Task: structure prediction
Amino acid sequence: MFADRAKIYIKSGKGGDGHVSFRRELYVPNGGPDGGDGGRGGDIIFEVDKGLNTLTDFRHVRKYEAENGEEGGKRRCHGADGKDLVIRVPEGTVVYDDESGKVITDMSGDNCREVILKGGRGGCGNMHYATSTMQVPKYAQPGAPAKELWVRLELKVIADVGLVGFPNVGKSTLLSRTTNARPKIANYHFTTLNPNLGVVDLGDGGFVIADIPGLIEGASKGVGLGHEFLRHIERTKVIVHMVDAASTEGRDPVEDIRTINAELQAYDPAILHKPQVIAANKIDVLYTEDGEEDPLKRLRRTFEPEGIQVFAISAVSGQGLKELLYHVKSLLETMDSRPVVFEKEFDANAVSGEANLPYEVTVDEDGGFRVEGPRIEKMLGYTNLDSEKGFEFFQRFLKDTGILDELEKAGITEGDTVRMYGLEFDYYK
Result:
């Protein structure tokens, strides 16, 4: 089954904790600190695999976690780094933050490999904290926490031209005749249930065309398989409307184009800014009665004043195909040759992990200031405030995380009391 959407949970590795230990050798009863550093946690990496063309595998496995770094050891031993986890996806996969809907990365063009979540750094062992005044530090730095995120994957085909039209108008036949693609063709609706890609070779250059499965009215609202089909048009540079000029199934070709354009505009108004071409198909069976307006003349009278050129073709016999394809090629030559790539809107590493744990500054009834929250509680859990080095680390933490700025915004002045989980301090700049 073709699958172009998936939702998965990703988590990088936690950094290994630094170690607390001291040299213990014969005749050296009071050796210095020798606790080693923790290892780095593994990264979550997305990589393009040219052999994949669907996201089906992600429907069976939804959790992806990299390895944690190992804790540091005695005798300055460094903990092993956690292994990175490489997640392979088809080219054209767009990764979104599931909560905000913003683009994390687009695995297209030159972007074949990207680190989405970085592993936590390893914590420093106590050997780093020895000073002339603190020669036996009994604390070490914990490893940075893992980063985790729910992401949504969407596969959007990379094609220069999008071939759109209602079901059974001959798109698959056109694709099979003009490209190297071999789509399934039959005379019933919705034969095509996934986009087919083909390369048009005109000798002096070519382009990639995608047969977007048959659209129906209401597609922009998700009716039928609307959203699954419409998202593949977003990357295309030129849209070719294919209609049944002979109305073999009683459809009005002018109304078909109006309806599809209305669906495209409802889904994303920017799509209608792309150049459009009309391929009026099935002229080999076109028949008009006396007094009836020629459908081709009606199409040209309606759309060519809007700058949309109409080509009369027969996908079965090949009539008119050369003119249509060279016109499309001439349109593409006026445009940027690089594939359409969605810009990054969301930095997963900037919003995940310890740096974004919340905290709150409040004022007590006696005028003292209280700072609480997971960020403070976590920091106090691994900081030895009884030591000079630990207290310096604590002060630097308050400054670097912006807590001191928040206290000043709340109106703190020198000499005021600051309370944090049972601890009290006097505030001085």
Q: What stands out?
A: The two ends are 65 Å apart (CA to CA). The CA atoms of residues 109 and 338 lie 8 Å apart.
